[in-house]
Amino acid sequence: MMEKLFRLQANNTTVKVEIIAGITTFLATMYIIVVNPSIISQAGLEFSGVLTATVLVSAFSSIAMGIYANNPIVLAPGMGLNAFFAYSVVMGMGVDWRVALGAVFWSGIVFLILSILNIRTLIVKAIPKQLRYAIAAGIGLFIAFIGFVNADFIVDNPATLVTFSQLNPITITFLAGLAITAILVVKRVRAALIFGIVLTTLMAIPIGRLWGNAAELNFGVPTLVTWKGLFAAPDFSVLFALDLTGSLSLALWPVIFAFLFTDMFDSLSTFIGVAEAANLVDQEGEPRHIKESLIVDGFSTTISGLFGTSPGTAYIESATGIEEGGRTGLSAVVAGLLFLPFIFLSPLLSVIPDIATAPALILVGVFMMKPVLKINWMHFDDAIPAFLGMLLIPLTYSITQGIIWGFLSWTVIKLAVGKKHEVTPTLLVIDAFAILALIV
Q1: Which of 315, 100, 345, 352 is nearest to 224 (CA)?
Q2: Domain residue limits, the chain
Q3: DSSP class of residue 207?
Q4: Dihedral, CA of residue 360, residue 51, residue 47 and residue 145, to nearest 10
Q5: pLDDT tens readout for residues 37-86
Q6: pTM for this one?
Q7: What is the C-alpha to C-alpha distance for residues 335 and 337, in angstroms, rounded to an integer?
């Protein structure tokens, strides 16, 4: 049954490897269970209600990805999309949160239609190979940057924008965890990233107890590893609370478009980046099972509106499980199932601090840089757009922005040097929507 559903032998993997990969991916993405409600609740939704919605969306979407698309990619409410939902739509535009959830739902419906009609697959095929390599590398840089920020190793600076923090108990513990995890990876120890997360968590226990103070980093709490109990009852207060008719008003169409465009290119870039880095491609070199994966992504956004949270999307942290050997949907199913108990056990997540998962994210960044070798650096009409797309992803803290400027620069340069055959009609349409997204 397992072999028939996931084709383990054909993908040169085993049940054990896929389970370890699923656990690793879950550990790298589980932060969303608490972080997403902390952002969305500022728009007036109950924290506990959004937490329940986050768990349900993450679990059902990831399981669907594993079973329907057989890809080792986890889905959950997207970072960036949740901030847009809370700060821009509800708080900035004054849209009622129920109406905003309706906009999420309708963007998911459009997303599904585009995927079923194969339009999104055509979009994937219109993306030049050189930009695909750059997107994969750019996502790797982005993941590593997030890891350094989560560890408080890189901080903001009014003069230089970002800078090195300082050596203190937090950064020293992080560096020790990074060194141990890196050595385990180099030695090819199975489940190295999981061991790294666990060991770094244990090393973080003394912070705020025996040395140092994490109050500035951890919302006023001096310790990093804090026990907050075991059980919390689920809250279904935001389930099916969306306003389906109010969200279809003409004034909300730009919001629906913004959700659709950002979600679309976040997910496309994740599928492309992970596929290129892990060689999860078909015989034509396209991301494996891309149509099925995009349909699941649209499904995730649709149920997000129904359950009470911002759009669900594919997670770049899925690369942590792939680095551990995950090659099939079984690892996504395992990760999805691991989300479900946290409807009741969400306080347990507070035990693992951000600095414990930071080393895993940084090492995944290393793993995802491999496609940069395929970029044709000797031809500047290829290299410049690729470089801009790769660099702007971490610098703008947005995968979508990196992709937009990569597309636009590719089009302008290729047309200017007389290589219009490298600019397809589909890419011109994408460019038009990219410009519209910038204006909106």
Answers
A1: 352
A2: 2-121+164-237+284-366
A3: B
A4: 20
A5: 877 888 899 988 999 999 999 999 999 999 999 999 999 998 778 877 88
A6: 0.75
A7: 5
